[in-house]
Amino acid sequence: MKMNVGQTIEIIYQDKTGKITQRKIEVVGIRDGRIRATCLTTGAPRVFLVTNILAWQQEPQKRHA
Questions:
Q1: Helix, coil or strand: residue 52
Q2: Structure confidence at residue 60 (pLDDT)
Q3: What is residue 18's DSSP assignment?
Q4: CB 15 within 8 A of CB 21
Q5: Is the pTM of this model over 0.85?
Q6: Cα–Cα separations (whole angstroms), residue 59 to 2, 20, 32, 62
Q7: Which CATH number covers residue 33?
Q8: Distance between CA atoms of 28 and 50, rounded to whole angstroms?
């Protein structure tokens, strides 16, 4: 899993209760198996465990004409 700070990604995440959600996040930091990010839906800061990310996709780069 290769992510960079400032990158926007979409994740499928399973929380500690087993609930599965899809979120679009902006990565703030990555350390010790945790991703600090801003949830772009709510604008709230969040921490995600890497082991609980079921799938992820990098947002496509926007091309400038």
A1: helix
A2: 67
A3: S
A4: yes
A5: no
A6: 13, 20, 24, 9
A7: 2.30.30
A8: 14
- pLDDT tens digits, 5-38: 999 999 999 999 999 999 999 999 999 999 999 9
- Judge whether 32 lies within some domain: yes
Q: Kindly report the CA angle at 59 between 65 and 48, in degrees rounded to 5? A: 155
> Beta strand 53-58 with 8-14: parallel, antiparallel or unpaired?
antiparallel
pLDDT at 41: 85
CB 13 within 8 A of CB 20: yes
Q: What per-residue confidence (pLDDT) applies to 3? A: 80
Hey, is 43 helix, strand or coil? coil
What φ, ψ does residue 11 adopt, rounded to 5°? Answer: -125, 155
Domain carrying residue 22: 8-58
Query: Cβ(56)–Cβ(35) under 8 Å?
Result: no
